Amino acid sequence: MALCLKQVFNKDKTFRPRKKFEPGTQRFELYKKAQASLKSGLDLKAVVQLPPGESINDWIAVHVVDFFNRINLIYGTMSEYCTEKTCPIMSGGLKYEYRWQDDSKYKKPTKLSAPQYMCMLMDWIEMLINNEDIFPTRIGVPFPKQFQQVCTKILTRLFRVFVHVYIHHFDSIINMGAEAHVNTCYKHFYYFIREFSLVDHRELEPLVRMPQ
């Protein structure tokens, strides 16, 4: 019997604090619109489409932050099953290995355990989405030219969290009664990145059959 989602996904277990939208801002209104569409039961392929008259960069920014929050929560709940011992390499099965590079501490692709990789990833994303020069929140402040390029990198790395969780921890997802919720989150993420061509199709190969 599946557990109540409030039991499965305890907000205290988020891997990093949730990033919130400031009430009264355009970004907050877009977020509410996106959430209302999700809860209405509309087809996820329709939900991700850019609303008429809205800025594509604002729409992408809202979803990047929302996906960070959701995936952060999923992994936070799963993290007790993902340890240095169970997952000494950040991978997606035998065929795919993900190495970390951030041009700061790790200037070259470096082999890390899955928990280490996740820590570096969430810290890195949090730093980016809190950077006003990349994710501006003030009215009238434009997005930088490289904004979508940065989002592509964020979303590509967040996709790898799904790869690792599905391939290495799917039994735990089922045991927690979280399968339906994780699947919906994944489909939402997948349709969004495909709608705006934000992740290279080669990155999607480990879970190529999942949306079906």
UniProtKB/TrEMBL annotation:
InterPro entries xrefs: MOB_kinase_act_fam (IPR005301), MOB_kinase_act_sf (IPR036703)
Kinase as UniProt keyword: yes
Keywords: Kinase, Metal-binding, Transferase, Zinc
Binding site for Zn(2+): C82, C87, H164, H169
GO-annotated molecular function: kinase activity
SMART domains per record: Mob1_phocein
Signal peptide feature range: none
Highest taxon of source: Eukaryota
Name of the protein in its database record: MOB3C kinase
